[in-house]
Amino acid sequence: MNIRTLVQPLAAFAVLGMLAHVAHAQDEQVARMRTALAAPERSQENKARDAARKPIETVQFLGIKTGDTVVDMIAESGWVTEVLSAAVGPKGHVYMQNPPFLAEREPKDMIARLGNVEPLHVQLAEAGIVNKADAIVTAMNLHDIYNGFGNQPAGEGPAVEFVKTLYAALKPGGVLGVIDHVGVAGQDNAMLHRMLPQQARDVLTKAGFTIEAESTLLANPADDHTKGVLDPAVRGHTDQFMFRARKPR
Fold first, then answer.
1. What does pTM read for this prediction?
2. DSSP state of 182
3. Choices 3.40.50.150, 3.40.50.2300, 2.60.40.10, 1.10.340.30: CATH for 3-246
């Protein structure tokens, strides 16, 4: 028997088997997320945000898997935390990171109910999270770091230093998901709480990341970028960019 004629079908079966396993894992994750996001215990406020923020599609784009260790960086009230909890499942772990002044916004009942969420009120390195996370997500935060939140220094430098702390927390090959409000040149983006996508790209690459993919999933052409993100005309429906950046192996 020709060895090549035997090996080629076996290799094809192995690839098909691997693809089937991946597809089954994704199906299982989607089913779990749909159940968790529709749970009666989940707040109506969080459920109302799902249509615009597309939680399942976002998790799929970022490649977050069942069993992963993930961080919701500057989580505030935890919409992303709840999504990540459902995505990684009971064998995964979610660190809900907030600076101390935001800790009061954390819904303690939600954290207790989810079971796989651990609140953090210190920086990741102080918590011993170095080369440990499979993925980190920071949503609607990078613009504040870049623009200077409160009396904090503004500009690319502080934003790069912030992102470097996330780089250090990730395992080699880990993913950073960045979601933020789109700003345009010529506007007062600091006042509007927005940033240029190119500013975010520059920050990520200067911190050591490779930008692997960009998504228009959360884009909204109806947002003309002239209004603040809390303006009733656009609140919850701003034009947003989403990047998947990877720490090299």
1. 0.89
2. B
3. 3.40.50.150
